[in-house]
Amino acid sequence: MKIPIYRAKKINNDEYVIGFYTYDEVHKRHLILTNRMHGLSETRVDSSTLSIHLPDMLAGSSNRLLPNGEKDLRIFASLNENGKGGDEVATKDYSSIKSVVVYDEGCFNVIGITRVSVRVCSYGEQRIKITGIKQ
User: Fold this and answer.
1) In angstroms, rounded to a whole number, what is the distance separating the alpha carbons of residues 71 and 117?
2) Is 105 exposed, middle or buried (0-12, 13-18, 19+ CB in 10 A)?
3) Fewer C-beta within 10 Å: the chain N or C terminus?
4) In the chain, where the domains are located
5) What is the 3-state secondary structure (H, E, C) of 93-114?
6) What is the DSSP track for 65-99?
């Protein structure tokens, strides 16, 4: 089973958190749930920075590291049209164009500042290098 994970910026903080997303209807807040030793931890997040990662969405290279020191190849695609919170990337075809990944209709799009769009529906995209997060 391919379960997505989400990333979003913490409320009143520039730090991003990765985990499972939920919306708390009672308190009207967006949350990312993360595993802790004694259960789940809830973190309030800014929904405008919400992005999604599906297990097959992997880059060929990345400037980002995992806690164990290995390269983090997970591509997070913004769930907002403006790309906020999505990964900034460079592609082999358009390496001079600053681009961001946006999730739409079951695919992720690499959209450049000049609105050049590369629609990628087959994940495992080796032409993509993650360079940062769109603020």
Assistant:
1) 26
2) exposed
3) N
4) 5-49, 55-133
5) CCCCCCEEEEEECCEEEEEECC
6) B-TTSSB--B--EESSTT-TTSEEEEESTTTTS-E
pLDDT of residue 126: 54
The two three-digit tokens of residue 119, written as one number: 């629609």
Q: How far apart are CA 61 and CA 63, in angstroms?
A: 7
Q: What is the pLDDT along the chain (135 residues), one digit of tens a residue?
A: 678 899 999 998 989 999 999 999 999 999 999 987 788 899 999 999 999 888 878 888 888 898 899 999 888 888 888 888 888 887 666 555 667 777 776 666 676 654 444 444 444 455 677 777 777
Note whether 103 and 50 are within 8 A (CB): no
Reference 126, options 57, 71, 60, 77; nearest CA is: 60
Q: Which residue has the tokens 């809830």?
A: 42
Which residue, 88, 80, 37, 30, is CA-closest to 63?
88
